[in-house]
Records
---
Amino acid sequence: MTRAAFDAGVRPGVRATALLVAKKELRSALRDRQTLLYTVALPLLLYPVLFWILIQGLTVLRGQDAATTVHATVSCDDAQYERLRPVLAIQGGTGETAAPGAERVEWTRAAERLDASAAQALLFGDHAPDAVLWFDADEHPVLAYESTKSRSVLAVERIRKRWASFTEELREKALDASGTSVAALTPFELVRANLASEEDLSGFFFSFILPMTFVLMAVMGAFYPAVDCTAGEKERGTAETTLLLPPSRVGVQLGRILAVAVAALVATVLNLAGLTLAAEPLLAAAGKDLAITIPWGAFALAIPMCAGFLVVASAILVALASFTNTFKQGQALLGVVQVAFLVPAVLGAMPGVELTTGLAFVPVLQTVLAFKAILSGFGAEHGPGAAQLVIVFVTQLVYAALATLAAVRISSRESLLLGGVSIRRALALWRTEGAPR
Amino acid sequence: MNLTNNSENGAAVRASGLCKTYRGPTGEDFEAVRGLEFEATYGEIHGLLGPNGAGKTTTLRMLASILAPTAGTAIVAGADVVREPLEVRRRIGFLSASTGLYARLTGREILTYFGELHGIPREALRARIEELIDAFELARFVDQRTEGLSSGQRQRVSIARAVLHDPPVLILDEPTTGLDILATSDMIDFVASRRSAGRCVLLSTHVLSEAERLCDRIGVIHHGRMLADGTLDELRAETGREFLDEVFRELVARAEPPSA
């Protein structure tokens, strides 16, 4: 075998080099446990696991509440006490009593009439009840409780529920006695009819969660691969090996950015899939009767914009991680960068913050707002305008190109390739080092 | 294209006024290599001898087009390191203690990766990899991830990677650093075999016995300057010393006369 046989081949250009490098970087990254955890396992399992824990927790708490007996003290005279027996579900004497099947409240009758200060002293004293019912000078019942204690809140809920039911019974009896009815007093009962389709409701629900999640997941998915192919390479002693690759370093760096963007895409897609799958049981557990319809049309419309963002985020992370020498340094630096992405992502998810022409130019925020607008109803009467979405899409392309160009130039510096230098130092060296070789 | 006959005067490597200046953290300049001039020819092992920090690694990195010279240039296998860095990288094999292997790839994957980036046709690449597996006895571990290999096994894969494209010029930066006795012996045999194959080997070392045994010509570098360049006999004649360590000391002493 001689060189002549090798020279017959076609030397890869920038695009072919980028694809070969990206393939190698992805293969290497996906064999790393930490990258696999953050790129595949965590995005896919995060929401289902979190929601499962939440639902189990809610179930346990509800079960615990149902099994809890709360204690309350009532202070009143004998006549009031007799009137209160039904409302308090008191069956017997003044001791520990409760109606069968009712959420249990054990009542104790105070030996003497209490005023406000005495009720407070009782509530905060030793062996305090969870709530105190007393009558003020005008004989109005007052229910005293302590809102920082869950048992006290539970006692109030149970007593108020019973009280409302009792007063309703009294009202109906009084109306019957006077020859009228509840229906006569409410001649026009307003019935609400929500005409929003399942798709609309799903879009509304997703528009709050998905855009922010998308940005956070894209950055999280790009995080480890970006550090791995820059600082990680220096730490493993393969930076010089990569510098020996025969093609242009522009192709090599483009390949790295592409690999990071693909890893981020995988993480994002898996995360959104996990979130979508977990949303329905979560809403059911929260008592919302909403059937989830995945807004595929909106997703399809958002794809080009999301792809642009993935490239921007990947290029920025690769460029910055190039300044570091070890995985630890890379993680520390990109941890700060993650926060820089987090702030506009959270801001954009806030209710009332909508896509405007001005905000369509703001990096990161534009992505969140455009995605949110698309999900909540592109083309609707008050939906986002096509012009604003076009601005977002075009500026995303420009930002992606600029970020990639900057990343290639920064990460191709020989001062960074063989050992990281500070960002300040790298900027000082900018003029003394030539173009990527 | 016959690369071995492509250079001026048959020189495989010709460095002309090669300089490299680094700027330190506080802004001061450090001249790592100062106007280096030398030639190496095909079928020759040319050693660069010098203590740590002499500028050997920087010189070899410039010749390999990893670093750009601050001034001067070099022609390597007919390509200019300043104007044609990509062509230089296609025509050299480079190996040093810091050219590690991608830990999560297998030896075969690494060889395939480099072969594809060299543009070697698929069938030729497959045949070449099999040839190297036989030549360097890699069969037992070539499909294992390199992170699990011994240092000797890794070294053999690295050598295969460096000669995969049959480069006319091989640049080796302290290739025996960190190797055990057997691996060192294998490396010495390999270097000698490249000379027999008519290739040019540029070798930096600070192990005098290695240089004495292998090199046809030796360049002594100190503080980024070439103090002398010639065969061992020429260096002996120039300094009037018998052994290489004495030759080296004499040359350094002449370059740095004792202060009054």
---
Amino acid sequence: MPYPTHPVPAPDEYAALRARLGSSRVGVIGLGGLGSNVAWMLARAGVGTLVLADHDVVDASNLERQFYFADQVGREKTAALTDNLRRITAELRLECFQAHIDQSNIGSIFGGVDVLVEAVDSARDKALIVAAASEQLPGVPIVAASGIAGYGSPNDIITRHLMGDVWMVGDLVSEVSAEHPLFASRVAIAAGHQAHMTVRLLLGYPQA
Amino acid sequence: MQIELALFAHLTPYLPPAGAEDESGSSHARPMDLPDGTTVGQVITRLDLPAGPRIVFVNGRHAPDDHSLANGDRLAIFPPVAGG
């Protein structure tokens, strides 16, 4: 086993780990149920810089699972999330892009990130983003998600190293639909997996 | 030539049957014999994979449908589903 699965840092090592996270830069594409929750977890974990992108505004229906509040309905998600993250930690550095991400802008916006989190909704966009990141951001680990909807077992949500630089969170099959809506609890589990895999990658532990 | 084919999630039933020589023990990967120069798109057609978005990697990097495969390549196809 090339990497320890349960490193237990000594106090001085803990400071070094926090410093490493503090000097890290993580991109998050999509600020919905996955991305908005990944963002606050990474902020609380001490990641120094977040590059956030979404083209959408906060909708009242988002409040059941996304990290926004009723008085933010109608605001751009990047602006609303900036306010919410600043209330957690004023030191966090944020680079926000109110934009739809595709192959035309992923390289320029997310160049230089240490880890990229794919947190968009549509299957087509997920495939497009992973492909474009593989081509334009070689060597950057991508933490993606697929299969997070419905009320299936929480324990079916896992993190796996899928292929190349891609780590995949989810049960792989539970697609969102009228019969399988998104529940805050299961989406948050997946967001937690994505955030924690990101932390592990930043600390040098790529094993899922 | 021979490649290794890995299919994930709801694509795994489309894997060709395991041959006696397949000792990988993997439930989602198989060796696959192909004519030289076969493209990724031709493999997808040959397997009759269902339509829908796919993440397609060859040897750990994204590859388009017109990418020509070489002996020993590892082709991996993952079908993402919506929800985020």
